[in-house]
Amino acid sequence: MFSRPVNYLVYFFLISACHVSSAEARAYQSRTLQPYLIDFIKEGRARGYEFNPFDPYTLTISYIEVYEKKEHQKAIALCEWTKFSSKITVRIDYWAKADLREREAVMFHELGHCLLKRSHCDVVKGNRFISVMHEIPENAYPDGWRKEYLDELFKRDVDCPENY
């Protein structure tokens, strides 16, 4: 019906029309995890945190069934980064059982690693960890402490204060 060059042109326009132009939309492999990145950025900006404008766009977030490396097999989620990109993987079996608060805590913890370059902080004050960046993120938000944990997460130039 159409000549071959016309067919290719039609295919090109169809594919171009389907292409998502927003860099933010391209950053995710899993749309169910996308809202956590958006909320993380909103929470950071509400606290005056200025993100590197390229970091969220070089981030990939996806599910994984099993971590292959032996040292990661017990992990529920993991952030890995290089100089130019970062990747968060979340174990799908954990995600299926976690409640909304646990999911947010785990994602914010991993985003703290990938976007804020925060390390673990296992300091305890009273009967709770002082940071969402502790090594057991699924238990990250004790009742009523979410705001304080997020305030601490987005403080500038803070990693794990020894004399908190």
Notes on the protein architecture:
Mean pLDDT is 76; it is low at 1-28. This protein starts with a helix and ends in an 11-residue tail after the last helix. The chain has helices spanning 4-18, 23-26, 34-46, 92-97, 100-114, 146-153, and strands at 59-64, 77-81, 86-91, 124-125, 128-129. It is α+β, with helices and mostly antiparallel strands and 164 residues long. The protein is built from six helices and five strands; from the N terminus they run H-H-H-E-E-E-H-H-E-E-H. Strands 1-3-2 form a three-stranded mixed beta sheet. It has a single domain, classed as Zincin-like (2-Layer Sandwich). A hairpin with a 2-residue loop joins strand 4 (124-125) and strand 5 (128-129).
Short key terms for the protein model shown above:
5 strands; 164 residues; 37% helix; globular; 6 helices; three-stranded mixed sheet; 13% strand; two-stranded antiparallel sheet; Zincin-like; single chain; alpha+beta
pLDDT averaged residue by residue: 76
**Which segments are poorly predicted (pLDDT under 50) over 5 or more consecutive residues?**
1-28
Largest sheet: 3 strands, mixed
| Helix-and-strand structural type | alpha+beta
Coarse morphology: globular
Count structural domains. 1
CATH-derived topology = Zincin-like
Using the 3D structure, state the CATH architecture.
Answer: 2-Layer Sandwich
Question: Class in CATH?
Answer: Alpha Beta
Radius of gyration over all CA atoms, rounded: 19 Å
Number of strands: 5
Portion of residues in beta strands equals 5-15%
The percentage helix is 25-40%
